[in-house]
Amino acid sequence: MRALIIALLAAATLTACTTAEKTASGAGLGAVIGGAATNSVGGAVAGALIGGFGTYIATTGDGQCQYRNSRGQIYTTRCHWL
């Protein structure tokens, strides 16, 4: 069951479009892996932090972020907070 959940979250991370979606799914995947590896809430929290931050850094490493406009179109431009 754990392997199925991890596989589904990994697939969600790969299919996420925007920076926020990728960061959130990375945090979710990290929480599941951290919780499964340590069998504790603390491990899940640490996994979420590491997974979310790691995904965020990987996504914004080049200074480009993806955004979705009001019509649902996805575009890439310089990150607003950089």
What does this structure look like?
With 82 residues, the protein is of the alpha+beta class. It is 66% helix and 12% strand. It is built from three helices and two strands; from the N terminus they run H-H-H-E-E. Strands 1-2 form a two-stranded antiparallel sheet. Strand 1 and strand 2 (74-78) form a beta hairpin. Helix 1 packs antiparallel against helix 2 (19-38) and helix 2 (19-38) runs antiparallel to helix 3 (41-60). The chain is elongated, with a radius of gyration of 14 Å. 26% of the residues are buried. The mean pLDDT is 75.
For the largest sheet, list the strands in their spatial order: 1-2
Helix content: 55-70%
End-to-end separation in angstroms reads 40 Å
Alpha-beta classification: alpha+beta
- The total count of helices amounts to 3
Element-level helix/strand string: HHHEE
